[in-house]
Amino acid sequence: MTDYAEEQRNELEAIESIYPDSFTDVEATLKFTYVERYPDEPPLWEIYAQENLEDGDVSEVLTLLQQQAEENLGMVMIFTLVTAVQEKLNEIVDLKKNRQEEEKRQKELEAEEAEKVLFQGTVVTIENFLAWKAVFELDMMELRRKRQKEEEQAGKPKLTGKQLFETDHNLDTSDIQFLEDAGNNVEVDESLFQDIEDLDLDEDDPDFDPLGMDSDED
Question: Residues in domain RWD (predicted)?
């Protein structure tokens, strides 16, 4: 007949000699309670006062205890269970350390990349140049509108087309640039000139001045 009480006392003395203070790991505390028919039946166990353990970690430890207890039925198993849990906790700690180190390396890489961008500036591409150009042209259009409004409010006369041409020298080359961009192929709407023959142009008049027509219109 098996003397369960004797086996339990012997195991307890052996465990106390290995762990003289407690059965406490850095990450968790395990509490085991013998049942009457231990070791033919598994002991009761409890995990409490765990530190730095997530819910998933606790679930894995409990599952491990159940598996180890079933595999060691009929034999004293507390030391085996504690050892298995210690190895599992060490594995969890290593995973946490590796994750922390990886996060640290990632932050360092991000800081280095940010420093490079700050040192090198923004690389100009076709896309970001066109985006900048569109914003710049809108800003210039708004600035000209405000300036024109201020001049009108100040009582300055609005410039005619001829005056704009004379003051803005960029207009001197705008048509040339347009022709270059178009490859010297410019389409003309001939319908604009269909009624030119109906104009009363008295070229025999000695006072006729075609250049003066523009100035009169202005």
Answer: 1-92
> Burial letters for 153-188: b for 16+ Cβ neighbours within 10 Å, e otherwise?
eeeeeeeeeeeeeeeeeeeeeeeeeeeeeeeeeeee
Is-contact 47 61, C-beta < 8 A? yes
pLDDT at 38 over 90: yes
Domain boundaries, the chain: 7-119, 121-150
Q: Which residue has the tokens 């202005």?
A: 218
- Give dist(CA 133, CA 186) in Å, integer: 26
pTM for the complete prediction? 0.43
Considering only CA atoms, which of 84, 85, 6, 82 is closest in space to residue 38? 6
CA–CA gap between residue 168 and residue 89 (Å, rounded): 80
Do the Cβ atoms of 58 and 48 come closer than 8 Å? no
Cα torsion at 50, 55, 59, 65 (round to 10°)?
Answer: -10
Closest CA to 48 of 34, 30, 25: 30
- Measure the CA–CA gap between 62 and 68, rounded to whole angstroms: 10
Run of H or E including 48: strand 44-48
What pLDDT score does 65 carry? 94
Residues 6 or more apart whose Cβ sits within 8 Å of residue 22: 29
